## 1
Amino acid sequence: MTPNRDNPLLNLDYEPALENLGDDYYDQVAAAEFPQHILRFRNDQLLPQLGLNPDLVEDGHFIEAFGKFQGIRPFLALRYHGYQFGEYNPFLGDGRGFLYGQVRGVDGTLYDFGTKGSGQTPYSRGGDGRLTLKGGVREVLAAEALQALGVTTSRCLSLVETGESLWRGDEPSPTRSSVMIRMSRSHIRFGTFERLYYLKRPDLIKKLLDFVIDIYYQNLPDSSDRYVLFYQELVKRVANLVAQWMAAGFCHGVLNTDNMSITGESFDYGPYGFIPTYDPQFTSAYFDYGGRYSYGNQPLICRVNLEMLQLPLMTLISPRQLEAALNQFDDYYAAAYRESMLKKLGIEGLNIAEGNELLDKTLEVLKTSQIGYHEFFAALTDQFNWGWREDSSTILENSTIPSADWETWRQLYYQVLSKIPQEKMDEVSHCLHQYNTQTPLLRPIIESVWEAITSENNWQPFEELVNKLQKK
Ligand code: AMP
Ligand code: MG
């Protein structure tokens, strides 16, 4: 069938940026043909970023472009390796996806459209190249939830159900199939560089890094030190990202180096989980027996992943400079985490000592009481009033917080609030609303949404949940 040239999604100004790098970095592949195409989700919030008016983009346009894959070619399965649970795996790569295209957003950012579930590629390793519908639903929800909490994340542009039956060990099977489009600031991973190091191709590492810096690190000065400046900036971005996850109570689940973006953006949401209560040992992936990627281990693991990346980068940057840059990680992380957590308490601009004290006491209360992590911040947001700066006993007066530290915490929070001028109280409230949610994406909520879909094909709870997450 010839593609419909009136389709605004096909008429976007696709840029062959990665394609122009040459075929050392990818394989051209074709999309699978699916028996059905039912649009289950379209992310209208993203369309204006692409210069599109949602009212002018029909469901049929989504299906044609992102279900039937007519029009824009070539599709590129990206090549990469990676450390999985600490073991090097040279057999990775886009095994069930490809780079559909790259588009410049109205903000000047170059966005990737990457597929997930679009069929087999040379990297499928015996896998079917498919995405389960539940997996697609889960990724849509994770990205919208993280976005709402201020996390730098990829988002799903569309999810199309494709009418196949899939067999999976971790879902009641047969289970339904889907194909997703993920919009991200690059699908280049740490593992993309690791592969080139493994293949002993410093020339390709240099070419790729120049590309990455030119496109995704435009904030760096154009200097002869650009490689080391890049790594310093990446260390900072990753520290910021993991701090955002920790504050959001998010456990990614599979922090292999093929799931770490070279731009410091969060992406690829498989067996993730939001913590129900503050518990550093919370582990979301059922196959992570040792808890390597537990919630509390994430900062350490991200640092380890940055350290592994030094091997490919050593072809361009001295080990001494790499080490010095990585040594900044802990300080960046501590500052970013403190800042993110204080924002969840409605507080901005506190000095370091006071900030640390309030943070420590908050974590202590959350840990010892084991009250709901998200519920605590939701209650704070919901009940906040400026009477709290007059009388500490009114702070969350209707909640029972079973912690020996509760009174100390209240006193401390009261002291911090009482130093904020009265006319700034609205800003506290605004900040609480901005960094907290009344709709935490806890497992039972996802399961209940999925239950309605799988048992009655009822998509209403899913749609309502997405609306709530997007409005917050
Ligand atoms: P992930 O766990 O989604 O990050 O995937 C890890 C690797 O396994 C990547 O190379 C994927 O492309 C590949 N992969 C995961 N699921 C499938 C599948 N059903 N078919 C083919 N490849 C897959
Ligand atoms: Mg992955």
## 2
Amino acid sequence: MNQPLILIIEDEESLRRFLVPTLISQHYQVLCAATATEGLALARSHNPDLVLLDLGLPDRDGMTVLKELRTWSRKPVLILSARNQERDKVRALDQGADDYLAKPFGAGELLARIRVALRHTHLLDVPEPVLEGGALRIDLAGREVSREGRAIKLTALEYRLLEALARRNGKVATHRQLLADVWGPGGEGNTHYLRIYMAMLRKKLEADPTRPRHFITEPNVGYRLNLEAPRD
Ligand code: CA
């Protein structure tokens, strides 16, 4: 089987010098572009399995690259964002990017995000009915949740929030996406609902709710459900 092809669209040469060998060491195939124009041309000619996209590119905004990609491709796009691009990053996620990496990031974090994003591609074809990790078991088909083998009772809203996170299977979900999924159009802007219900989920499903392992806060962005083994 062919190894997944990853397209890097990033103008910072030092970052490309870190990304390319890191990805090749994991047997990914790699293509590089330093501008938006070059990146879009390579995306069209090679149809990569995943795109690493910098938002601050010299010729055009990374956001326009994302928009154009999304007109013809559903392949995962991971945003590479600098610290001062907080708002752009959230906008990119709401516009169809799959996840993000905040610079600077390490090799472990990069590879974990890529694994999750590529796994998700396959899940679109065959939805996983049961998700398991740590002591948690989430049966989306049977609508049952258990921790350490014991069934946990969730309210309807708690379950909908858990399901909205679980459907993204390790990828970040923005506040706006979660509010729309759980509360519908009326929920927009009510980020405090999320804080309240996330606290309830953590209380019921985390071993130590004050140090959550599964229900991860992504500051100013949203939340992610992490069912992978903890990394050190
Ligand atoms: Ca840049």
